[in-house]
């Protein structure tokens, strides 16, 4: 495996046969085939997802056989030479929600605010962490995939989100406590946390809770690719921008940022443009200091025999649903090989652009927003701008710690 300081490159694992419904009749041979294909691209890790209803069908019942399946998948990945991050509470995957019945209908509980529902999730994370902690190829445990997708059916405030995340992160760490030092406890959110005004999951929560900051810079967020074009600087530098935006909200200037989901969904990124997009996304993101790594979405296309997915979900894989590597897979593998052969050595971004927004105006920092477009304009002019919150724009010790010598766009300046 890579050393602790090397950039990590991996993929979010979407089973080729049956998508995540494959957990209903888990087949180790099929999983092994998929993992061998992934390893064959030269990638070093995967992110995996079990389904919450299968793991915890009752609030006080966690199915040992389902946990054992997950452990077996982690072991299979290890045999293929792949490290693994496990997401615990799914939750939400590719436009589908997976709630256990004890959270719904007659038994509805708000998963973010109901004390017993929170404790049930915490116990699930403790059990998963304990079961997985001894695996040598485990990266860590993430609370779940883009938990903020669930606010649609579970109204919550930012303060309640903070308490929820703190409780579940503590449970994940407790579960992992018997493992080796350095196992990560993390959480993730889709782009609304960074771009949507008054969204209850905040940039501060993403950048300050958990052991690394995870970002999911999708080209369809705020209609980025359609707004600017699939080969535009705004699209090709989107992951890089996501990393720099995340660093601005962190209190720890040395905190790592993980580009945990990015991909080339059609028609936002036409298939002919996907290899170029993949290569440029990796190269541009790799120019960011403090990058943990990049994890592509996803390994395999959703098979078209499965109904009712948004069209883009059928085209996101590096491999098609027959298991054949697509041109984007070869482009990604080649770029990863190049970056391993000549590892990037990012220099401090000495120029920063001040971001002046509140929770109710954070859309200025998303595609179409004034700040986003100003940052991208500087980038196309050859500047490599950092992002600094306006409140820190005159903090000399903070700027020095980040290597910033010039701040543009301070409030009140011309």
Explain the overall architecture.
- The chain has 414 residues and is α/β, with parallel strands linked by helices.
- It has two domains: 8-341, Alpha-Beta Barrel (TIM Barrel), CATH 3.20.20.80; 351-408, no CATH class.
- It is 35% helix and 13% strand.
- It has 14 helices and 13 strands.
- An eight-stranded parallel β-sheet has the order 7-6-3-2-1-10-9-8. A three-stranded parallel β-sheet has the order 12-11-13. A two-stranded antiparallel sheet has the order 4-5.
- Helix 1 links the parallel strand 1 and strand 2 (45-49).
- Helix 3 packs across helix 4 and helix 10 (238-249) runs parallel beside helix 11.
- The radius of gyration is 20 Å and the shape is globular.
- It starts with 7 loop residues before the first strand and ends in a 6-residue tail after the last strand.
Q: What are the secondary-structure elements, in order, as H or E?
A: EHEHHEEEHEHEHHEHHHEHEHEHEHE
Distance from N terminus to C terminus (CA atoms, Å) equals 50 Å
Compute the gyration radius: what is it? 20 Å
Question: What's the CATH topology label of the largest domain?
Answer: TIM Barrel
The largest sheet is: 8 strands, parallel
State the helicity in percent bands: 25-40%
**In CATH terms, what is the architecture of the largest domain?**
Alpha-Beta Barrel
């Amino acid at each position: 495996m890579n050393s602790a300081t090397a950039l990590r490159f991996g993929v979010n694992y979407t089973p080729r046969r049956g998508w995540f419904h494959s957990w209903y009749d888990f087949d180790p041979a099929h999983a092994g085939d998929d993992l061998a294909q992934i390893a064959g691209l030269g990638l070093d890790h995967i992110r995996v997802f079990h389904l919450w209803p299968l793991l915890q069908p009752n609030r006080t019942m966690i199915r040992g056989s389902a946990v054992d399946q997950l452990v077996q998948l982690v072991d299979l990945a290890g045999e293929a030479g792949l490290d693994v991050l496990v997401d615990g509470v799914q939750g939400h995957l590719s436009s589908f929600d997976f709630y256990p019945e004890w959270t719904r209908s007659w038994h509805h509980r708000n998963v973010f605010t109901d004390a017993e529902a929170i404790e049930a999730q915490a116990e699930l994370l403790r059990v998963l962490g304990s079961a997985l902690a001894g695996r040598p190829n485990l990266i860590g445990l993430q609370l779940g995939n883009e938990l903020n997708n669930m606010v649609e059916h579970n109204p919550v405030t930012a303060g309640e989100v903070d308490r929820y995340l703190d409780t579940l992160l503590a449970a994940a760490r407790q579960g992992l406590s018997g493992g080796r030092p350095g196992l990560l406890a993390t959480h993730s959110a889709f782009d609304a946390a960074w771009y949507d005004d008054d969204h209850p999951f905040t940039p501060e929560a993403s950048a300050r809770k958990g052991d690394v900051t995870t970002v999911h810079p999708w080209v369809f967020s705020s209609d980025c690719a359609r707004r600017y074009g699939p080969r535009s600087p705004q699209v090709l530098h989107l992951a890089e921008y996501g990393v720099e935006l995340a660093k601005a909200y962190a209190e720890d200037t040395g905190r790592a940022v993980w580009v945990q989901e990015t991909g080339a969904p059609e028609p936002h990124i036409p298939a002919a443009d996907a290899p170029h997009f993949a290569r440029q996304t990796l190269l541009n993101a790799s120019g960011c200091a403090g990058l943990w790594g990049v994890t592509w979405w996803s390994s395999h296309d959703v098979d078209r025999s499965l109904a009712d997915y948004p069209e883009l979900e059928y085209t996101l894989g590096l491999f098609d649903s027959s298991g054949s590597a697509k041109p984007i897979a070869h482009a990604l593998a080649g770029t990863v090989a190049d970056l391993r052969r000549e590892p990037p050595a990012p220099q401090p971004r000495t120029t920063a652009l001040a971001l002046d927004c509140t929770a109710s105006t954070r859309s200025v920092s998303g595609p179409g927003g004034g700040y986003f477009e100003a940052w991208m304009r500087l980038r196309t002019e050859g500047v490599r701008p950092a992002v600094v919150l306006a409140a820190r724009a005159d903090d000399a010790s903070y700027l020095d710690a980040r290597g910033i010598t010039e701040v543009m766009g301070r409030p009140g300046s011309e």
